[in-house]
Amino acid sequence: MALYGAPVWYGALSGDNALQLRRAQHVLAVRVIRGYRTVSAEAALALAESMPWDLDALVLAAVYKWRGDQRSLGQRPAPREVKAERLRLEEDAVARWRERLVDSTAGHRTTGAIAPTLTEWVRRQHGRLTFRATQVLSDHGCFGAYLAMIGREPTAECHHCRRCDRDTAQHTLASCSAWAGERSVLISVVDGDLSLPTIVARMASSEEA
C-alpha cells in the first residue's frame, strides 16, 4: 500500500514525506525482527532485509520510465528483459542502501556488521531472526548496559559472570563465562572469529551456519 502509484509520486517525494515513510516502515521492521522499539530504523530495516521504501519507490519509478522509453522507440520489452532491467536497478538501489548503512547515524554496531555483506544478507533464502538472535545482533535486550541505559538496572554489570562491569551483546557473544558451552559450538562454525561482521557473514552464507 505504501508504494502504490510510486512511479507517479516518486519525483515529488520530499524529505518530510520520505521521513514519514521511514517512520511507518520502522514500526513494521521492528515487529518483523521481534526487536525492541529502541532499535534504530537503520538497524531494524537491515535486520529485517527490508529496503527503505524510498529506494523501492526509486526502482519502481525507474522501471516504469525505462519501459516508457522503450515503447517510445517502438520496442516492446519481453518479460525477461524487464526482469533483467529491474534486477540491475535493484542492485544499484542496494548499493545506495549500503552507503546509507556505512554512514548511518544510529545502530552503528549492527549496520556496520551487515553493510559488507548486505546483498548476501537480503537475498538469502534461509533463516529467520528469533527474539534472542535479534537482541545479540542489535545490542538491545537483556544486557546490563542496555537495561541501565533505559533505567531498568542501576548498573551495567553482567548478572551472569559478575566479572564484567559493562554487559553488552558482544560480551555475551564473545567472553561471558556463563555461555562457554554454547560459544564453543559457535566457534567451531566461525573459525574462532566472534566479531559481529563475521557472525553476520556466516549466518548469510548457509542455513547450517
TrEMBL record:
Source organism, top-level taxon: Eukaryota
Protein name: Reverse transcriptase
